[in-house]
# Entry
Amino acid sequence: LYIDGPFGSPSEESLNYEVSLCVAGGIGVTPFASILNTLLDDWQCYKLRRLYFIWVCREIQSFRWFADLLCMLHNKLWQENRPDYINIQLYLSQTDGIQKIIDEKYQVLNSRLLIGRPRWKLLFDEIAKCNRQKTVGVFCCGPNEISKVLHKLSNSSNSYGTRFEYNKESFS
# Structure
């Protein structure tokens, strides 16, 4: 028997890109929690300078899992005069009406809560435009449908010279 390891989560590589796009679907946010916690402790020692964090959930209650962590990270970066370091977008895919993440302390997240599903092509175009000639690490943990779309878009060319490198994580 030969064991080669230990191996961390593929998502850990997001810290090794200057720009990373992390996409979570539902409970697929779990591997990104350690990344967000790492950035909360100290972001300066990593290559990462811009993080796009997209989380898609069906129910509003799901966002409460990591709401405190997201708010703490956002507030820390604002206090350090780095408000552009992280771009948080939360998507509520199923709803009977407009809802908010209850509680005053989550006000930061309420303004980033969008109803529906992400418009992936527009998102990739915007990231490419803002990060010309750079390589963007794309990290996904979620349903296969999201993964397939992100993989296809990562392999597509754009007029800004931006390269997207796709990485996938899945729960077995």
